[in-house]
Amino acid sequence: MTNRNCFPNQQVIAWALLTVWTIALCSTQETTGNDDKMPEVSIENGQKIAFLGDYATTENHDGYPFQVIRGLEANGINASLLLIAGAGSSDQMLAKLNQSVLVKQPDWLIINCGASAAWAQRSADQYQRDINQMVEKAQAAGTKVMLTTANPAGEDPDTHYGRAIAAYNERLRELAKEKKYRLADVDMASAITAAGGGHDSHRGNVLTTDGVFLNTLGTQIMTLDILKTLGLNPAQLQKAQDSWLDLTNFCSAKASLTIRQYMQLDALAAKQHRSAQELLGEMTAKALSAQSKDKPELPPNRNSTK
Amino acid sequence: MFNTFKLFSIVGIALVAWETNGQAQNILIKDGQKIAFLGDSITAQGVEHPSGYVQLVVLGLKVNGIKVTIIGAGVGGNKSNQMLAREDADVIDQKPDWMTISCGVNDIYGQLALNLYRQNMIHIIDKAQAANIKVIILTATMITEDQSAELNQKLIPYNSFLRQLAKDKKCPLADLNADMQAAVLASGGGPKTRRGGSILTNGGVHMNALGDQVMAIGLLKTMGLNADQLQKAQESWLDLPKICEVDLNGGLTVRQLQQLDALAVKQNRPTSELLGELVAKSLAPALPVLESSASGEKRVDVH
C-alpha cells in the first residue's frame, strides 16, 4: 500500500517540485498497470472522512484536510469532513480516539501524527504501538484507516526531532508492509531537499511556515499524496490541483519587514479602513502582476504534467 | 517632539500618555541585571520572535545604556497554577534580579475560577519576593481585540485584582490591557470594523509587530524610562532588518504564491525576504501622503 516517491532530479526546486511530484505520483500509478488496472477510488460520494492530527494538522481552510475534500469534490465526490486537529502526541490521540472520532462513525479515518509525539519524546516503539492500536480500534469499529507519514518537526532532518520523525516514518512503513495498512507515504524529507531547503539552506523553510505548519506548497504535496492513496488517477489528481489554483483569499505567505515598514503598511491600511494583511495581499498581487508582464515565463507550466 | 511617531498613533499612545502624566524618574532596571519573563505563549513568543516584546524591551534598555540578560519563562497554554508549579525551576533557581509576570488569558480559556487565580498569583508573587526577586506585574492582555466580547468581559475582574495586588505587594504595574484597549480604539480597529480584529495581534491573542511594541513600550515605561528614553528605544528597533514576519493571512491565490516562490527560487533567497522587498517598493509612493496626513493627525491621550 505504500507509494514512496523518488525524484529523478534533485536539482528541481520549489514550485517546479510540485510538477515533478505530480509526475512522480502519476508515473508510480502508471508503472503499476494500464488504465484498465488503475485502482478504484476508495471513497464514495456522501461518506464521512475524519482527519485526526496533531499540531501540524490545521483547522484553517487552506490546510490539507479541506484540500482533500476540495480535491474529491472537483472529481464529483462529495465527502463530509470531521476534523480533530491539535490532538497531541500518539498516546493522547489514542486516548481520545473513541470519544472524538469513533463515536461519530466516520467511514474513513486519516491519521497524521508525529511532531507532537516527537516533542513529547515518545520512543519509536511507543509511537508504533500507539499507531497500531489506533488502527486496530478503528478497523474494529468498521472505519477504514489511512496513515500518513509524519510531517517535519523542523525542516532540518539532522536534529534530534528530525531523527525522531525519520524513525517514526520507518515504523509506519514497516507497519504498512507487515499489516497491509494503507499509508500515504509523503516523503517530506526528500521534498525539502528537492525544494532547496534543509540543513545549511539559504532558502529557510520551504514546505512549512515555521518548521511544522505546512505552507501552501507542503499542503499541496501532502494533499496529492493522500488523494493518490485514496485511489485518484493522474487525470483526477490534475483536476484536483487545478481546482484550488485560483481560489481567492486562500494562501498565506510571510513578508520580512522592518518594524517601520510594518507601521507604514498599517498606517496606509488604516487610511483605507482595512487590515494590513488585506493591503499586503493586494500589493503583492499587483507587484507580481507587474513582474509577470516583464517575465511571462514565471508561472509554472502545469500542462507539463500530462 | 514625536514627529516620527505622529504617523503611528497606535504606538505613540504610550509615549503621549507618559508625556502627559510622567516626570523623569530613575530607571528601575540596572545595568547587568537579569530579568525573568514568566508567562504563557504570549511571553514565549515575546522571547522567541525577533520582534517579540521581550526582545524589544532588551533592545530598548540596551540603547539607553542598560544591558540585561533574560530568562525566557513563557510556556504556551499555561495558567496561573502551572506557572506557580514551575516558578522554582524556571525562575527562582535562575536567580534573576527581576521577574515580570503576564498571566490570565489561559485562566480565562481554562475557566480557572477567580478565587483560585487570586491564590495562585499571590503565591507566585510571595515566593518571588521571598527570594529577593523584584516583581513587575503585567495585566493580562486582551482576548480578541473586541473589548465587548465575552472573554474580555470575564477578564475584567482578573485584571482589577492584579491592579490591587500590585498596590498591596508594592510591585510596579504595567497595565498592558488598558494600553491595548486604547490602541485598538485609536487605530479604528475591532472585529466589527473594516480594519478587522487583528490590528495588534495575529488572530486576536498573540501579538503582531504593533502589539509587541505596545507591550514593550508599556513595560519600558513601567521600568522607568522617560519620554526621550522611550523614543530612543523605539527608534532603535524601527529599522532592524527582517525583524517582523508579517503573515498575509490567506491574501493570495495558489497561482500568485507560485509566482512569488518561483521568483525567490531564481534569486536563491527566502520567499519572505522577497515579499518584504516587494512590499517596501510598493509602499514607497505612498509615504509622502502618509507623512503629510500624519503631520495633521490629532494625538490621543489615554490615561
Note the topology.
The complex is a heterodimer of chains A (306) and B (303).
Chain A: H1 14-32, E1 48-53, H2 64-73, E2 80-84, H3 90-100, E3 108-112, H4 115-119, H5 124-140, E4 144-148, H6 160-179, E5 182-184, H7 188-194, H8 216-229, H9 234-243, E6 254-257, H10 259-271, H11 276-294
Chain B: H1 3-6, H2 9-21, E1 34-39, H3 41-48, H4 53-62, E2 69-74, H5 80-90, E3 98-102, H6 105-109, H7 114-130, E4 134-138, H8 150-168, E5 173-174, H9 176-187, E6 201-202, E7 206-207, H10 209-222, H11 227-238, E8 244-247, H12 254-266, H13 271-283, H14 287-295
Parallel strand pairs in B: 1-2, 1-3, 3-4, 4-5
Antiparallel strand pairs in B: 6-7
Helix pairs in contact in B: 2-9, 2-10, 4-10, 4-11, 5-7, 7-8, 9-10, 10-11, 12-13
What does it look like?
Chain A is α/β, with parallel strands linked by helices. In chain A, 47% of the residues lie in helices and 9% in strands. Chain A has eleven helices and six strands. In chain A, strands 2-1-3-4-5 form a five-stranded parallel sheet, with helices on both faces. In chain A, α2 (64-73) links the parallel β1 and β2 (80-84). The model of chain A is unreliable at 1-13, 30-38 and 296-306 (pLDDT under 50). Chain B has a five-stranded parallel sheet with strand order 2-1-3-4-5, sandwiched between helices. A two-stranded antiparallel ribbon of chain B has the order 6-7. The interface between A and B is large, with 63 and 66 residues.
